[in-house]
Write a structure and sequence with these properties.
It is found in: Bacterial flagellum basal body. InterPro entries: Flag_FlgI (IPR001782). Pfam families: FlgI (PF02119). This is Flagellar P-ring protein. There is one protein chain. The chain has five helices and 26 strands. The chain is α+β, with helices and mostly antiparallel strands. The protein folds into three domains: 133 residues, no CATH class; 83 residues, Gyrase A, domain 2, CATH 3.30.1360; 137 residues, no CATH class. The strands form eight sheets. Strands 4-5-6-11-8-7 form a six-stranded antiparallel barrel. It is flat and about 110 Å long. The relative contact order is 0.15. The N terminus is likely disordered.
């Protein structure tokens, strides 16, 4: 079985190509979050009606009957003393995410999940449900027909189930009734939080913004934070941020190896390299050697002698003719390519990489899942 090798960045394998820094260019908006600009989670308790006998049972979900009775009484229907069988009704939790700048009357998607013993929410309709935030205030109300992606078909002696039928969604099922009151344009400073804190990337964000604006408004507070001082700027903060977030930025990508042993997947960063090392694992023999070469200038020239690195990797399988010889300037990706040609299993591959890391021969962070 060949190991699936995924490269996180393009690896240059030519001998003449120098090993460079792994820099991925993207936009500032794709690597930072603006402090205060976030979604707000909403939650509510509601009732789904119209189910085809797949709702909650009175024995296992008595709260469904109580909720149905309370709702009917509020609608003016007297059901005291009546024996209600809510097999076409289900109690559910309703959740939604309120965008930071959602206005009154706008709609958001909602998710509906059964909390009783209902078998399916297919064909059901959510009755008007208030959705509250963490502060206990109602910010939206939800209602509508539920879309269920799962399938549950049952007949005498047979049952076929696919996906989940006790949870569904209502596209644009909630209407915003209260705004968060967040006034972005009243701010005199903005905090940019890097999603992956890094000293180099944060410094580049600071430099890129100050160069583009022409005024030193950006200040790198720490590897994960860049502050913007807007007191000297004219115009709205929203317009300024719209210009800043689309600036191109080179992200410093760390040398990293991620191994998923269950799926046999290895993901490599571009700058993952190995030093001189020899390993024998099972019947696989690996040897990496470095032979520096001195380059002399032409006679009577003003050039200087320089030492050029020259590396060679040799992989052998004992008792067979399967030998993989890779080019100089060895990277870990070349090593793995050679091991793949010998049919090394994912488990053996992970063991080899772990051992090389323990010996200090791999210069990268190793993450094993």
């Amino acid at each position: 079985m060949r190991l699936l090798l995924l490269l996180a960045a393009t690896v240059l394998l030519q001998v003449s190509a120098p090993v460079g820094t792994a820099d991925a260019q993207t936009r500032i908006r794709d690597i930072v979050d603006v402090e205060g600009v976030r979604q707000n989670d909403l939650i509510g308790y509601g009732i789904v009606v119209g189910l085809n006998g797949t709702g909650d049972t009175a024995r296992n979900s008595p709260f469904t009957e109580d909720s149905l009775t309370y709702m009917l009484e509020r609608l003016g229907v007297n059901v005291q003393g009546e024996d209600i069988k809510p097999d076409n009704v289900a109690a559910v939790l309703v959740t939604a995410a309120l965008p930071a700048f959602a206005r009154n009357g706008s709609t958001v998607d909602v998710s509906v999940s059964s909390i009783g013993d209902a078998k399916s929410l297919e064909g059901g309709t959510l009755i008007l449900t208030p959705l509250k935030g963490a502060d206990g205030e109602v910010y939206a109300v939800a209602q509508g027909s539920i879309v269920v992606s799962g399938l549950d078909v049952q007949a005498e002696g047979a049952r076929q189930r696919q996906g989940v039928t006790t949870a569904g969604a209502i596209p644009n099922g909630a209407r915003v009734e209260r705004e968060t009151g967040f006034e972005f344009n009243q701010r005199d400073s903005i905090v940019l939080a890097l999603r992956d804190p890094d000293f180099t990337t944060a410094a580049r964000v600071e430099e890129t913004i100050n160069t583009a604006i022409g005024t030193p408004i950006a200040y790198m507070r720490d590897p994960g934070t860049v502050d913007l001082d807007l007191r000297s700027m004219s115009g709205s903060p929203s317009r300024l941020l719209a210009n800043i977030e689309n600036l191109p930025i080179k992200v410093a990508v760390p040398a990293r190896i991620v191994i998923d042993e269950q799926s046999g997947t290895i993901v490599l960063g571009e700058d993952v390299t190995i030093s001189k090392v020899a390993i024998a694992q099972g019947n696989i023999s690996i040897k990496v050697t470095e032979t520096p070469v001195v380059s002399q200038p032409n006679p009577f020239s003003k050039g200087e002698s320089i030492v050029l690195p020259r590396s060679e990797i040799d992989i052998q399988q004992t008792g067979t003719d399967s030998i993989a010889l890779l080019n100089p300037n060895v990277t870990l990706s070349q090593l793995i390519d050679g091991l793949n040609t010998l049919g090394v299993s994912p488990g053996e591959m992970a063991d080899i990489i772990r051992t090389m890391k323990a010996a200090g021969a791999i210069h990268a962070d190793l993450i094993i899942r």
